[in-house]
């Protein structure tokens, strides 16, 4: 055999070996796959059987529970027992004019028997919630198939409901009424009513009232003080008040208006003093708790802790000064200067009093706020002394304006003599007045002509 033939035989032999190995590997892999599939199928069958077993156990447990909750298997007994219980429950719930009537009964296969009842009557919403709670709290095999209620003319609710109850065929003939409450009703009757009724179906939720006053109330010692609590309700409803705890004897509280009345004595400790003479009472404020509840639906309330602080009465205030009276000096005018036999006379008309004062040298006067005396009177001017100062007042002049000028140091006016001689002083003394008499008229009317030479002439009627 040649070398080439030898190589060819080796190649063919190797090919057969590879083909045989591939065939053997495929057979092994198929066997492994078949085994795994078989194991998976068996596992699924085992799981299915376990599920059926668990379902059967659950069904058996459920059936045992149903057996406990079921009505008696005797149809007459079952219908009578359940109707009696339902009628008692309806009456306890406050259903007026209540009626409980059987409406239908029919078997369902060979498993159970179904009974139908119709309940009707009148009650309030609160009574309806109580009836439903009592119905579902009883652990019977029953349900409410249909429920209808609406307002009546008297303001109550007309209630009608259709109920189904079941008795299992395998239940005991003398099965007793279950006494336990159903685990499906987790809340008590009060909690159920609070959850269902304590809401407003037609308006936004009611907001609690808000305390808008001061946290510290002040009570003045020795004085009676009324303090009304300031509370705002968002819905504007009325607010009722309730005080927790007790108040001291000097305090009281009106719950209808929310008003505190404080009347503490001048010394809260009945006059007891400490060794240094200070009050023995504590300065710590009194704490009170007030509960405020609105009248909205549903009601909302808040509690507020307030402090009552005792304070000493304020010092008495000085009385306000009386308003100034009208000053007669602002309406007093010099109307005339009249010469008599011995001296000159100044006529001063006080218009507010309707009188004319006739003043001579040395006379005192008090007109409004002006109080003084007459220093001198001449044919042209009157010299007045007021508050130690001298003021000049001329005919038709106002007394208040003359004083406001404050010119007491002005030089006195002089009059030119009619005969061309030396001038005479305007403030000549009463003794010198008669010396000038020969040169002047003796009658008052002639002397007043000089006064009429002023800027505002004086009426003749005032001179007379």
TrEMBL record:
Q: Which GO terms describe its cellular component?
A: membrane
Tell me the InterPro entries matching this sequence: Cadherin-like_sf, Ig-like_fold
Keyword annotations: Membrane, Transmembrane, Transmembrane helix
User: Which residues lie in Low complexity bias regions?
Assistant: 431-446
* GO MF entries: calcium ion binding
| Record's keyword annotation contains Plastid | no
> Which segments cross the bilayer?
7-25
Region called Disordered, residue ranges: 255-286, 394-464
Which intervals of the chain form a coiled coil? none
- Gene3D superfamilies membership: Immunoglobulins (2.60.40.10)
- For this entry, the protein name equals Cadherin domain-containing protein
Which organism is the protein's source?
Rhodopirellula baltica (strain DSM 10527 / NCIMB 13988 / SH1)
């Amino acid at each position: 055999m040649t070398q080439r033939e030898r190589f060819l035989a080796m190649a063919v032999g190797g090919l057969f070996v590879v083909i045989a190995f591939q065939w053997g590997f495929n057979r092994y892999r198929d066997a492994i796959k078949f085994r795994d599939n078989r194991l998976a199928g068996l596992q699924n069958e085992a799981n299915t059987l376990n599920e059926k077993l668990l379902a059967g156990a659950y069904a058996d447990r459920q059936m045992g529970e149903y057996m406990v909750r079921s009505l008696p298997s005797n149809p007459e007994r079952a219908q009578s027992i359940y109707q009696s219980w339902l009628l008692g429950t309806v009456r306890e719930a406050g259903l007026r004019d209540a009626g409980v009537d059987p409406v239908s009964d029919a078997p369902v296969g060979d498993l159970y028997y179904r009974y139908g009842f119709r309940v009707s009557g009148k009650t309030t919403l609160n009574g309806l919630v109580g009836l439903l709670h009592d119905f579902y709290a009883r652990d019977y095999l029953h349900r409410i198939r249909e429920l209808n209620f609406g307002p009546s003319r008297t303001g109550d609710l007309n209630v009608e409901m259709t109920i189904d109850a079941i008795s299992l065929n395998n239940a005991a003939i003398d099965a007793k009424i279950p006494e336990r409450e159903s685990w499906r009703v987790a809340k008590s009757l009060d909690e159920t009513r609070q959850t269902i009724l304590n809401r407003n179906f037609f308006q936004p939720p009611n907001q609690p009232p808000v305390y808008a006053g001061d946290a510290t109330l002040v009570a003045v010692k020795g004085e009676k003080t009324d303090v009304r609590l300031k509370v705002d309700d968002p819905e504007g409803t009325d607010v009722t008040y309730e005080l927790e705890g007790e108040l001291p004897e000097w305090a009281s509280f009106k719950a209808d208006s929310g008003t505190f009345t404080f009347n503490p004595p001048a010394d809260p400790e009945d006059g007891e003093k400490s060794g240094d003479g200070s009050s023995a009472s504590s300065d710590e404020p009194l704490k009170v708790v007030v509960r405020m509840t609105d009248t909205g639906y549903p009601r909302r309330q808040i509690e507020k802790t307030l402090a009552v602080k005792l304070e000493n009465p304020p010092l008495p205030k000085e009385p306000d000064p009386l308003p100034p009276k009208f000053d007669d000096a602002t309406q007093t005018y010099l109307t005339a200067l009249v010469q008599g036999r011995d001296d000159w006379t100044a006529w001063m008309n006080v218009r507010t009093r309707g009188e004319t004062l006739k003043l001579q040298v040395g006379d005192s006067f008090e007109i409004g706020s002006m109080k003084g005396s007459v220093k001198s009177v001449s044919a042209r001017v009157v010299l007045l002394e007021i508050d130690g100062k001298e003021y000049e007042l001329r005919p038709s002049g106002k007394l208040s304006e003359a004083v406001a000028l404050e010119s007491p140091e002005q030089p006195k006016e002089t009059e030119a003599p009619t005969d061309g001689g030396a001038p005479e002083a305007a403030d000549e003394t009463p003794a010198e007045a008669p010396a000038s008499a020969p040169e002047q008229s003796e009658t008052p009317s002639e002397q007043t002509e000089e006064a009429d030479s002023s800027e505002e002439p004086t009426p003749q009627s005032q001179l007379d």
